[in-house]
Amino acid sequence: VPPRGARLTWWCFLVSVAGFSTTLITGRDDLAPIGGIALAATIIGITGHAGMVMRRATRWNVVAVYIAVALACLDAVAIMGALLAISLHTGMLQDPLALLAPKILLAVGGWLGLVLVGISYQVVPLFNVSKARPRWAVPVLCLLICGSLLSVVALALNLPAPVRVATLKLYAADAALYA
Known about the structure:
This protein is about 80% helix and about 0% strand. It is built from six helices and no strands.
């Protein structure tokens, strides 16, 4: 990352910490939108740098794809968080809590789930005594992506409970393949 980009990311982070800390200490939500936007800019700056580094790779393996999709999920979570912070003060969203469940699901299932599973495909074989390679990496990736995105859409659109359960089952099906 060029020094200017790194400094800008650092300043965005400081502004977000100051904005959210002031909001929490004073109980006033005046600075929450600024903190939310600055935190989203910080996360997008960091993931953008990671994307630039990954773009220079000559060969991608399945772990790199897991990480790339996870970074995209993290960017989406940051943007959703900024929208929630802005709505806290402005009332932009009629029901901001309707966005909270999809945001949490995308953060835990999309970003964290993809990072943990993706990295485990790289790290676990390092500690195995056998030369066996993990199976089903691509189908698990597809189930994680489809399940998490469909679940987020089903929650965001408040689809009927059977549809939401079906999308979560799709997401959970990857655990059976992963094990």
